[in-house]
Amino acid sequence: MTEPLILTARDNPLLQRIRKLGQDPGAYRKLGQVWLEGDHLVGAALQRGRPLEELVFTESAWHERADWRGWVDRARRVVVVPDALMKTLSTLESPPRIGALLAVPADTALAPRAFSVVLDRLQDAGNVGSILRSAAAFGVGQVLAIKGTAALWSPKVLRAGMGAHFALQLVEGLAPEDLAGLAVPLLATSSHAGLVLGQAELPHPCAWVLGHEGRGVDEALMARCAHTVSIPQPGGEESLNVAAAAAICLFASRAPG
Amino acid sequence: MTEPLILTARDNPLLQRIRKLGQDPGAYRKLGQVWLEGDHLVGAALQRGRPLEELVFTESAWHERADWRGWVDRARRVVVVPDALMKTLSTLESPPRIGALLAVPADTALAPRAFSVVLDRLQDAGNVGSILRSAAAFGVGQVLAIKGTAALWSPKVLRAGMGAHFALQLVEGLAPEDLAGLAVPLLATSSHAGLVLGQAELPHPCAWVLGHEGRGVDEALMARCAHTVSIPQPGGEESLNVAAAAAICLFASRAPG
C-alpha cells in the first residue's frame, strides 16, 4: 500500500493551494484542479472512474478502518494531516474527514448530437447545482455554459451538484454562436404560446436553454430556438424557479428507457 | 392622499423593529410581522389583497412618479426615510427603494380536503422558497410545515419565494400526527417500487410529503403515506434535489385546468 505523506505545516504549498481552491470560486481555471470535500463527492468521482491526484485524510480518519481506505490505490498520492489542520482547509461548518484534488477535465468541444442543457448566464450556485443533478438523473450528456454563467466547478456548485459533475460532460465559456455546432433542436420555456408541456410531443434528443434568474434567455439565443415550450400553471403564478422548471422539462423530455 | 411620516433618526423604534425582522429569521414569530423588501414582494402582497401596515419609501423613490405611488392608499401608514437610512434596513447588496411591514397571517388550522404540500424538516431556504413557487404555480392550496422546517416567513425564504407566500395558506409547527386531519391521500417519493410517475394515475387532490435534504421523510410520516411514487431516472443518478423532485411531482398531479 502507498505510504502516506504526512503534512503538519500549515503553510505547506499543497495546503495553501487547497485553501485557494476552496475560497476562490474561479481558482480552478488557473490551477487546473478542484478540491472535493467529503466522502460523498470523492466517492462519486471515483465511481465514475475519475483519477484523483491527492487524496487527503485527517489523522483520525486515516487510523480508522473504513470503506474509503480502499480508495488509496486510486490516488496518485495520499496525504495525512492533523484534524485541526483539515479545519483550515474547509469552508464548511463541519470540516470533512477526507478530501481530494482532481484535475478539471478540459472539455472544450461540444458533442453535436447529445441530449443537452445550455445555461445562459445563470447566477445562483444552488440553481446550477440542482440543474446538474436533474441533468444527470434524466440522461443529459452535456451541459454547455454560456460565458457569464456561475463557474461550474466552483466549490458551491460542486456541493450543490452532489456528484452530478462526474456524470456529465461540462463545457464552459461558450458564446451563443458556438451553439451553431449543435445538431439537435434548441428548446426554451416561455409563457407565450409555443408547445404546451404535457400535451405536445417533444423532440429527443434536444437542448434545453435555461436563462438568467432575473432576465431570462438572451434574445439572440431565443432566436436560435426551434420551439418555445410553456408549462401549464393552473395556479396562475407563472413564476417557477429556473431549476424547478428545468427539472420538469428534463423529466418530460428524458431518454426513453 | 395620506401625508407621509418622515423618519430621519437611525434608532427610531420602527426602524429598529424592521432591522430585527430583516436579520433574525424567526423574529416574525414574536413580532407578528414580516418585512418585505423591494417592489416585487410588496406588489405581490397587494395583488393578493394583503393589507400593508407600514409602507416605507426612500426619499428619492417618494419624489419620483412611479406606479407604486398608487399603493399609498393601501397602507395604514406611509413612511419616508433618507436613502442612506434605507441601506441600514436592508441585508441585500442593493438595498430596495421600497419596503413594507405586513402582519403575518396566523393560519393555524389545516384545510382537510386541499391539494397540499407537507414539508418535513426541510432546512434550505432556497429549496423551501422554490417549493412554495412551484406549489403556487400548480394550484396547491396549503403548505404544511412540520416542526423543524426552516421558518417559512424568514427573509431568505420570502426572497426565494418571490411572492408565492401570498398565494398560499401556510401552517407551521405541525406534528406528524396533526396530518390525521387531512382527508386526502399522502404521497411521498421513493426510489423503491410504488407508483411510477408518468405511468400511474395520481390521485387529485393529494398531499405531497417532502423530506429533509439529507435524511429524507421521517419514518412515522412515511407510514402515513397512501402511496410511494418513483421518478424514473434513466441517467441512473437517483439523486434529484428535493425542490426539483417537488416541481416534477406537483406538475404531474396538478389540478386539471
Task: Please characterize this protein's 3D structure.
Two copies of one chain form a homodimer. With 257 residues, chain A is of the alpha/beta class. Chain A has two domains: 5-103, 60s Ribosomal Protein L30, Chain: A, CATH 3.30.1330.30; 116-252, Alpha/beta knot (3-Layer(aba) Sandwich), CATH 3.40.1280. Chain A has nine helices and twelve strands. In chain A, the strands form two sheets. In chain A, strands 8-7-6-11-9-12-10 form a seven-stranded parallel sheet, with helices on one face. In chain A, helix 6 links the parallel strand 6 and strand 7. The longest helix of chain A has 13 residues, at 125-137. Chain A is elongated. The N and C termini of chain A lie far apart (42 Å). In chain A, 46% of the residues are buried. The mean pLDDT of chain A is 93. Chains A and B meet through helix 6 and helix 9 of A and helix 6 and helix 9 of B.
Question: What is this entry, summarized?
Answer:
The structure is a homodimer of 257-residue chains. By secondary structure, chain A is of the alpha/beta class.
